[in-house]
Write a structure and sequence with these properties.
single chain, alpha+beta, four-stranded antiparallel β-sheet, globular
């Protein structure tokens, strides 16, 4: 009986401790000052206690870039009866260990490695580290991965890094040519004419917006204020910089940013900027095709006049990668995942990003500006392959009409026509794991 009493007291104590901790932590995460005004010196210890379980879980988990895969062989798998000999080259980025990002240029027809780059990852991390960045990673115990490598004619590479303030250019030997760390450079990199590089960026402090609630001091370091930035690839000189929030508001789309009467710290999540390399009836050369994940919106922007020429919200959800195609079409890689935005406890699902029964996999959409219609011409292939990359993801319609897809989170590339797969590619690290891929690029 005595033991039961002690057990009851212990369980009751744990129950009330959990409620108190949960309520305190909720105040910490939902307040603009991390709970310091309300909880004082106890805010940091309480936050540490709440995150201890997560920290222990992360310590025993494999590194984030490792993807368990026991099936696919290293490199390309060709389905010979279907392969043509018209494929372009492929530029891939992968990781072999922490601070060990590498790049390879591959011949997709033969599987041969044509070029390799092995930059000094730790040196780049140290040079990119900027204490002015309020979202900077810890200087120790961190990692980085490079995104969307872009190769120039002299075999130099440019890339961003998701986990630090970095845009870098290395030469064909992997030696650093230049580096920028004055803001956060993230997601896609694209090349236009006259050595112009188009980059998604965020300043360390956001702009001030009168349509947002609260004080600017409360959100200037937390609002992710995505910008379109154009840079000269030779001199690293900044040629153009404009907030996407400003563009939307100035073009009458404030209601799209706040269409649910809600705002989050990452209201847009800019993830792709595609410059138009030629003019058609529907766009002009140097127009920009913009993808904003968190509002499931793609739009066509003309920097010369600061005008949005065309905008489309859905039917894709949380898309990545948009491309011009032909004379009147736009290709969109729809992740088609649904976000649960509750900050502490999910109200509908217990995961932040989930597929639904109606949309159980990624999808490729083709929007026709001339017909104002959306089709999914590769639906049979996508249904067969079931790509399910929750974040990231790339696609291209190749010159021979085949579809290239990078299933980023699962570390796989596949190529096929509208109904059947022709090629698989993975970067195998050992018998159990392959590497995640970090925005591969078709090189024509």
């Amino acid at each position: 009986m005595k033991k039961l009493r002690y057990a009851f007291i212990l369980l009751a104590g744990l129950f009330f401790y959990s409620i108190l901790l949960a309520a305190s932590v909720r105040n910490i995460y939902l307040s603009s000052d991390n709970g310091e005004r309300r909880l004082g010196f106890m805010a940091k210890p309480l936050k540490f206690l709440a995150e201890t379980t997560t920290l222990i879980y992360k310590a025993v988990q494999p590194d984030e870039f490792l993807v368990e895969n026991l099936d696919l062989v290293d490199g390309f798998t060709f389905y010979k009866e279907q392969v043509s000999s018209t494929y372009p080259k492929l530029l891939v980025g992968y990781k072999t260990a922490k601070f060990e990002s590498k790049f390879e240029l591959l011949d997709m027809n033969t599987g041969d490695v044509l070029k390799q780059w092995s930059p000094d990852n730790k040196l780049l991390f140290e040079k990119a580290y900027n204490p002015l960045n309020p979202r900077r990673p810890p200087s120790k115990g961190s990692d980085l991965h490079f995104m969307h490598p872009l190769m120039t004619k002299d075999s130099s590479l440019m890339f961003t890094s998701q986990l630090t303030s970095l845009l870098a250019k290395i030469d064909k030997h992997g030696e650093l040519k230049w580096l920028k760390n004055d803001k956060t450079y993230h997601h896609s990199l694209e090349m236009g004419d006259d050595n112009k590089i188009y980059s998604c960026t965020r300043p360390f402090q956001s702009g001030k917006y009168d349509f947002l609630p609260g004080s600017y001091e409360d959100y200037k370091n937390t609002l992710m204020d995505d910008h379109i930035t154009i840079i000269n690839s030779d001199t690293k000189e900044e040629l153009f910089d404009k907030s996407v929030l400003e563009i939307l508001v100035e073009n009458g789309y404030e209601d799209l940013v706040l269409y649910k009467g809600q705002v989050i710290g990452d209201p847009l999540h800019l993830n792709d900027i595609q410059p138009a390399l030629y003019s058609t009836e529907h766009w002009q050369k140097d127009d920009l095709l913009i993808s904003c994940r968190n509002i499931s919106t793609v739009f066509l922007y003309r920097p010369e006049t600061n005008k949005i020429i065309w905008l489309k919200h859905g039917p894709w959800y949380n898309q990545h990668d948009v491309d011009f195609h032909g004379q009147n079409q736009v290709v969109v890689f729809g992740n088609d995942v649904i976000r649960e935005e509750s900050k502490i406890n999910g109200r509908i699902t217990n995961t932040n990003l989930s597929f639904s029964n109606k949309r159980p996999h990624n999808q490729v959409y083709l929007y026709d500006l001339a017909k104002d219609s959306v089709t999914t011409p590769f639906h049979a292939l996508m249904k067969s392959e079931m790509p399910r990359t929750i974040t990231s993801g790339r696609c291209d319609i190749l010159e021979n009409g085949d579809l290239f897809v990078e299933e980023t989170n699962q570390g796989r590339i596949f190529i096929g026509d509208s109904t059947s797969k022709k090629i698989d590619y993975v970067k195998r690290l050992d018998e159990k794991y392959i590497s995640s891929l970090f925005w591969s690029r078709i090189v024509n």
